[in-house]
Write a structure and sequence with these properties.
Elements (H helix, E strand, L loop, with lengths): L6 H15 L1 E2 L9 H11 L3 E5 H5 L5 H11 L2 E6 L12 H10 L4 E4 L11 H12 L4 E5 L9 H11 L4 E6 H6 L15 E6 L10 H7 L11 H10 L6 E3 L4 H4 L3 H18 L16
Parallel strand pairs: 1-2, 1-8, 2-3, 3-4, 4-5, 5-6, 6-7, 7-8
Keywords: Isomerase
Organism: Amycolatopsis rhizosphaerae
Pfam families: AP_endonuc_2
């Protein structure tokens, strides 16, 4: 018994919380237009979606129309991605991202680093990006990618810690966790509050010959692959993590399914995975929560 609840009670609470808070990341339904994506995610049970900045710019919808669409389906936007080489200064897409935050609302940005820069040279630009985002009430999660130039959670933490911004943190994508060889002990010394968000997905038993291609086309649904998902989630939970959770599955196989079916598979496997790990997805708010 924990806090007066048995396992069944904890699972019931987990399910209830997850169905109100779990997010569908941008690339899980990456081929769907915005109205289709919103309807599919809401129909599956997701509480929110993620968007690429191009999804916003290419939607050909006014901000008010997007707000109405989200409200009609009871959804919010958790995250937006991404600006590219932010080490060079303000990226041209930032204006659109922050306009979205101000007019429609998001919680955070996911930002990897694909360009080659020494980690020490990223500290000041990351801090500056965080400062620009803070002016709009937005958090920034630095996403480590094993095929990029910040490959591990430890390398991301070095930059985030040195930048030392209250709205700066780390995005933990489980595909990147597994393929970077991350272990629970890698969380030692990283405050739980630094984890901005967790993205659920899984990996094939053997890595592909091209890690970038695999990451963008051949991920598995949560709990449907060879990754030690339960150990990773339990490590994050035991470290005290309270960040919101998304399902992010780049998958050509998932793309081939109707959006409603793909969303339902993503939601169901995401909920099941969180329940097995006794890992409830925490509540979250956006920059426009009060206005919404």
């Amino acid at each position: 018994m924990v806090g007066g609840l048995g396992l069944r009670g904890r699972h019931r609470m987990s399910t209830e919380m997850t169905t109100k808070t779990l997010n569908c990341s941008a690339n899980t339904l990456r081929l769907a237009d915005l109205p289709t994506r919103v309807a599919a995610a809401a129909g599956a049970g997701f509480a929110g979606i993620g968007l690429r900045v191009t999804d916003y710019l290419d939607a050909n919808m006014a901000d008010g129309e997007i707000r109405d669409l989200l409200d009609q389906h009871g959804l919010r936007v958790l995250e937006m991605e991404h600006n590219w080489d932010w080490a060079l200064g303000e990226d041209p897409v930032e204006k659109a991202m922050f306009t979205f935050a101000d007019e429609i609302g998001i919680r955070h940005l996911n930002v990897p680093m694909f360009a080659e820069h020494p980690p020490a040279d990223l500290v000041e630009p990351f801090g500056a990006l965080c400062d620009r985002a803070a002016a709009h009430g937005v958090l920034v999660g630095f996403e480590f990618l094993p095929y990029s130039h910040v490959r591990t959670i430890g390398e991301a933490w070095e930059v985030v810690a040195a930048a030392d911004r209250p709205n700066g943190g780390i995005t933990v994508d489980l595909w990147h966790w597994f393929r970077s060889g991350a272990q629970p002990q890698d969380l030692a010394g990283i405050p739980a509050s630094v984890i901005t968000t967790v993205q659920l997905c899984d990996v094939a038993p053997e890595p592909g010959p091209d890690m970038t291609e695999e990451a963008r086309h051949r991920r598995k649904l949560p709990g449907q692959g060879a990754g030690d998902t339960l150990t990773a989630l339990k490590a994050l939970r035991d470290n005290g993590m309270v960040a919101p959770v998304s399902v992010e599955v780049f998958s050509d196989e998932l793309d081939a399914r109707p959006p409603a079916e793909a969303a339902r598979l993503a939601f169901d496997t995401g909920v099941k995975t969180l329940e097995r790990a006794e890992f409830p997805a925490p509540a979250w708010t956006t920059t426009r929560e009060e206005a919404r």
